[in-house]
Write a structure and sequence with these properties.
Low-confidence stretches: none
Largest sheet: 6 strands, parallel
Helix content: 25-40%
Radius of gyration: 24 Å
Distance between the termini: 70 Å
Mean pLDDT: 93
CATH superfamily of the largest domain: Thiamin diphosphate (ThDP)-binding fold, Pyr/PP domains
Shape: globular
Number of helices: 23
Number of domains: 3
Strand content: 15-25%
CATH architecture of the largest domain: 3-Layer(aba) Sandwich
Structural class: alpha/beta
Length: 538
Amino acid sequence: MNSSPTIRFSDAIIQILESENVKYIFGHPGEQILPLYDAIRKSKIKHVLMRHEQGAAHAADAYARISGKFGLCIATAGPGALNLTMGIATAYKDSVPLLIITGDIPTNLRGCNVFQEIEVCKVFKPITLNSYNISNPEEGILKLKEAINQFKYGKTGPVHISLPRDVLQEQVDKSLIYKEVEYSSKTNLKELNAQINAAIKAIEKAKKPVILVGAGVIWSNATDKVLNFAEKHKIPISTTYHSRGIFPDDHPLNLGMMGTRGTEASNYAGENSDVLIALGSRLSERTEASIGPCKIIQVNLDEENLKSEINIQTDVGEFIDSLNDLKVLNTKKWLNELSKYPTYHKIKTDYNEVPIKPQRAIQEILDAAEDSIIVNDAGSHTTWLTLLYKAKKSSSFIFSGGFAPMGYAIPGSVGASLANPQKNIVVIVGDGGFQMTSQELATIAQLNLPILICIINNSSLGIIKQWQKIYYGNTYEVELQNPDFIKLAESYHIKAKRIKSPLKVFQTVKKALNLRKPYFIEIIVDKEEGIPLVNTKT
């Protein structure tokens, strides 16, 4: 009797990923992950060499946000794995589908306190949906397939698989590559149907309904369904930060963002609605800041996020399908009431002073960027972007969200560019955030990506400086003695230019985008210009 053909486990992993049409792996090699790198070398999947593992996680995260597919990052054991934690936590907080594969020391050395040994799964457990410590190839294939099914059918977020080097080199039955693994849902159908019926009754009785869309609408591919439902019943739509662009800001039913930094129209709707339908949103404290004493219907696959009066643990698209027989609502009076409030922020930007006001600089960038994808970082410039940006398309504006680490934008731009190579990518980052991950300029230059980096330089940690002045009357350790950023960019063979006056920002951004190559612009802005203190209930 002939034995079944076998395959090296590391090669089996890559074949499974190829069958899922994975195009890119973001990573940094190391000793314990080398068998997987050897398999990638012979694969059609392209490995993107990031200069730091944090950058690999952020790049994979941004790739997922732009492509709608899961992102994939890899690292070696010990320090390599732990360097991923910032990016994993960022993806976890924003429910981004991210597959993390790390190498580990050989199984016979576990527990011996050997070189670079650490129980990485214990570290990753709080920031992943699951973190698996694999002991044999069969288990590894099963958990990999379960993770992929999780991304397709379950709640989204990071899943981690730790693979010892010796296990990666073992042989495994080749038939396991093609074996189907079913996704098992723990949904209580009886309870789900009862909650859906309660939601239908509440919506039909509503006089002032509003739909709040979160990023879960993107992950469920339900954008068109939600828009069609809203248009059919004439229900106004508010967005969270991460769902901006799902519906164009100029859509007549779009009230804009709700919550901290939300628009007047959207926050008024949240405070005065009688029924709020939250789709794919975890209802963060910043969103809840503008929600009044209304009945909340919350639809989310993640049970931990459900905390409302009517909780529906299901896919957003499936929920919308269940409302097909809902009678058409009469919201004319409610829409007339909302029409009195602006769906955008009125921000003065026509300053002509030198140094440039940051809001003027950012407005010029946005005006020139037009159809580009904006990748944002954390800092005071984020507030100006929030207030000034007009979202037209889904996934046209991404940032580091609920965890908000500085340093997301530069590596994130790599993933964003590879996810949508036809688009120009415009990074907007402060001088503080830029220096967290500036080494990824090397990755951008090596790949010759059409990424324009706009650094808003106020020579300080601007937003922390402002809070220190407000709360303590003085500042401490927030002034930055920066390097020559132009020389730094040029050392990576990236063209660079420094701007100190208005109007030139727009012109330079336009010219840079036409090049379709890496470009770096440093904009010297007013050190003392703070962000406006509006809608800061939290």
